[in-house]
Design goal:
2 strands; alpha+beta; binds zinc ion
């Protein structure tokens, strides 16, 4: 399951190029992560890398189910072990 490009682009604009994660179990300094991301580095190594995340695994490939996450948040959100509030520092 993957988002079509136009959905990712719309989500990116909505996010303002920053991580949209609001999960309380993460170690964000603010309510929203807001980490600045780099468009060209989706799913790649490098500064500001990020991924388009399915908010609900059964929600489909729509804009409302697409969340722009920085790599760190995406990694934690994709892992079921992360549900324990183990704070990681990067
Ligand atoms: Zn983040
Ligand atoms: Zn997060």
């Amino acid at each position: 399951m993957a988002f079509p490009d136009y959905v990712v682009e719309q989500a990116w604009r909505r996010a303002g190029g920053k991580c949209e994660c609001r999960r309380r179990t993460h170690n964000h300094p603010y309510v929203r992560c807001n980490k600045e991301l780099v468009w060209a580095n989706r799913g790649r190594e490098g500064r500001g890398k990020w991924e388009a995340h399915h908010i609900s695994s059964s929600g489909g490939d729509t804009l409302s189910n697409c969340e722009i996450l920085c790599w760190d948040c995406h990694k934690i959100s994709s892992s079921k072990l992360s549900l324990k509030s183990k704070h990681r520092r990067f």
